């Protein structure tokens, strides 16, 4: 992971850090958020690199058969939205009354829900924020202050609606089942959305993917990271038992007695493993 990715993740995490002391559950959550944001930053960086490469007159070389089938080749598993999305997806029709939409969100414990037409095409998304604005208008129909009214004119006008289609936010931001999880995560982060409707090529609802689904797919736990690092150790050393590998919150510690010439290459390989935050070298060299 690049220094840019780490820096971007740390800055974003600091902005979300609460002023009060963290609970025991908060530190792991913040750590996961930092790793998630770093993964999104890495995806954005990779996109920029791909887009900056000159395409005119140059074709990308195909990998040779020998390289493709080499035993040491590590082919990363690319997850797609269809692998992590929730099916079936909860939705509401455009003519559903305001109170019924509120009851649906409460019953399903959702923060937002897609709004569909008669053919299941996603036409918008209605969220808790939309319903909260509607409730505020019901309590106080006439808002005070012309500046505030002008600044949030669209929200104010929309809140006078009584059905899902008049309260919803549109056009909806959606993703396709074949889209990569990393790209969907970038879309969710950029749009600051907790849930994304998943639609087919005709715009019909086929599922929903949440930010939590994307987070779990992108960030492996320490046990999975350790298993891959131990596999790498086995490729570099004749006796893998000479090295002890521990992983805590994505930080890999490598300990043991090794040939001095092998250490730099081994540590470099470990740093390239996905979701490794840092590598601590506690090896002793001969």
Automatic annotation (TrEMBL):
Residues 1-71 are annotated as: Disordered. InterPro entries: CBS_dom (IPR000644), CBS_dom_sf (IPR046342), Diverse_CBS-Domain (IPR051257). Keywords: CBS domain. The keyword Protein transport does not apply. Pfam families: CBS (PF00571). SUPFAM superfamilies: CBS-domain pair. CDD domains: CBS_pair_BON_assoc (cd04586). The keyword ATP-binding does not apply. Residues 85-147, 168-224 form the CBS domain. Residues 38-47 have a biased composition (Low complexity). This is CBS domain-containing protein.
């Amino acid at each position: 992971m690049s220094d840019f990715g780490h820096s971007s993740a740390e800055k974003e995490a600091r902005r979300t850090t609460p002023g009060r002391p963290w609970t025991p559950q908060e530190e792991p959550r913040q750590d996961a958020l930092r790793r998630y944001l770093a993964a999104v930053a890495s995806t954005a960086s990779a996109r920029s690199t791909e887009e900056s490469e000159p395409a005119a007159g140059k074709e990308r070389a195909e990998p040779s058969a020998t390289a493709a089938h080499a035993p040491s080749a590590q082919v990363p598993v690319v997850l797609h939205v269809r692998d992590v999305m929730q099916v079936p997806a909860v939705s509401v029709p455009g003519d559903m009354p305001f109170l019924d939409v509120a009851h649906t969100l409460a019953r399903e414990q959702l923060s937002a829900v897609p709004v569909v037409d008669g053919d299941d095409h996603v036409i918008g998304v209605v969220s808790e924020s939309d319903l909260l604005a509607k409730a505020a208008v019901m309590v106080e129909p006439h808002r005070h202050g012309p500046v505030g009214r002008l600044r949030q004119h669209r929200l104010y006008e929309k809140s006078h609606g009584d059905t899902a289609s008049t309260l919803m936010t549109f056009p909806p931001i959606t993703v396709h089942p074949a889209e990569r999880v990393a790209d969907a995560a970038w879309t969710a982060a950029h749009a600051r959305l907790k849930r994304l409707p998943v639609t087919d090529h005709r715009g019909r609802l086929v599922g929903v993917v949440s930010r939590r689904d994307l987070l779990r797919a992108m960030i492996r736990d320490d046990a999975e990271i350790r298993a891959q690092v131990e596999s790498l150790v086995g490729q570099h050393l004749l006796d893998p038992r000479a090295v002890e590998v521990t992983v805590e919150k994505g930080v890999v510690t490598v300990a043991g007695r090794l040939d001095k010439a092998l250490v730099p290459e081994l540590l470099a390989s470990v740093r390239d493993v996905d979701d490794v935050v840092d590598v601590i070298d506690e090896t002793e060299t001969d």
